[in-house]
Amino acid sequence: MKILVTGAAGFIGSHTSHALLTSGHEVLGIDNLNDYYDPALKRARLANLSCLSGFDFEKLDIAEDVALGALTAKYQPDRIIHLAAQAGVRYSLENPMAYARSNLLGHLAVLEAVRHTPSVKHLVYASSSSVYGERNDTPFSENDPVENPVSLYAATKRADELMSVAYSRLYGLTQTGLRFFTVYGSWGRPDMAYWRFTDAILKGEPIRVFNKGEMQRDFTYIDDVVRTAVKITEDTPNAARHRIYNIGGSDPRPLKDFIAAIEAALGMEAKKIYLPMQKGDVTKTSADVSAITRDYSYAATTSIEDGIRIFVDWYRDFYSV
């Protein structure tokens, strides 16, 4: 198949592109290579992909709808997996307009590109566990109400889902949204807690621990995510035009356990500064993965301890620490 991947230089996008290529697909990756975090890391991910047969890359901002539409029409992909977005809950408090452009205009531009390119038989796109907001009843089910976001980032991801519902009903587009739950692993994002903790501990600097580390997260290792995301992308569902799936570890753990796993992998103890909860944060995430398990035999098989050890080994190698 010919598959267009947005956000191909990103964390999940690069892993997904790699898995698609090694499965024998052709991949056209697009990314704007912005400076939200170090573009050198994004270029390094692309360099890995460029070594594989069947990969092409175009630097493009998905919010440029005319350019995106022209590229999609020229490439004529069989599938699109849309992973480009402005990520980060906390950054949405500082730069909200970046989220409007990338997550709202960008998602709409992708929908328009699919609408006008009949070769595309299935659009798979990234949503987020953030859409569930602050709630006490767990685990979170795809059937739960999601109308009370606690961050702009969450609001944009929910808006993307609603736009996709509308386009499926209006134009019959086959789409699947994936609500990712705290994905981590090698080649990850430097703005995420596990990366920042690792960096600080190795430098002998203190780490900032919010809510005394009592927040619980449904941490999900990247390989577990990608394996099933590829299956879904290859599929052409018949039963529904638009579907939503949770994709998480299904084993919520306190942040302090995550920190302990990093300390164990590094063989170093962190200096901790305890701080209250931040705006836009939630106390717990927990994924009900029964639907994706039923339909695609999804299974999260990587423990936090193993996943963090793999990340730390990669980090030491990448930065020659």
CATH structural architecture of the domain at 2-181 and 222-248 and 286-300:
3-Layer(aba) Sandwich
Low-confidence stretches: none
Q: Strands across the major sheet, in which order?
A: 3-2-1-4-5-6-11
Largest sheet, in brief, is: 7 strands, parallel
CATH topology of the domain at 2-181 and 222-248 and 286-300: Rossmann fold
State the helicity in percent bands. Answer: 40-55%
CATH homologous superfamily classification of the domain at 2-181 and 222-248 and 286-300: NAD(P)-binding Rossmann-like Domain
In whole angstroms, the N-to-C terminal distance is 40 Å
What is the number of helical segments per DSSP (H or I, 4+ residues)? 11
What general form does the structure show? globular
- N-to-C series of helices and strands: EHEHEHEHHEHEEHEEEHEEHEHH
The secondary structure category is alpha/beta
The pLDDT mean sits at 94
Give the class-level CATH name of the domain at 2-181 and 222-248 and 286-300: Alpha Beta
Strand segment count: 13
Instruction: Determine Rg (CA atoms, Å).
Output: 19 Å
* Strand residue content: 15-25%
Q: Can you put this structure into words, describing what you see?
A:
- By secondary structure, the protein is an alpha/beta fold.
- The chain has a domain at 2-181 and 222-248 and 286-300: NAD(P)-binding Rossmann-like Domain (Rossmann fold).
- It has 11 helices and 13 strands.
- It has a 7-stranded parallel β-sheet, sandwiched between helices. Strands 7-10 form a two-stranded parallel sheet.
- Strand 2, helix 2 and strand 3 form a beta-alpha-beta unit.
- Helix 9 (255-266) packs across helix 11 (304-318).
- It is globular, with a radius of gyration of 19 Å.
- The relative contact order is 0.14.
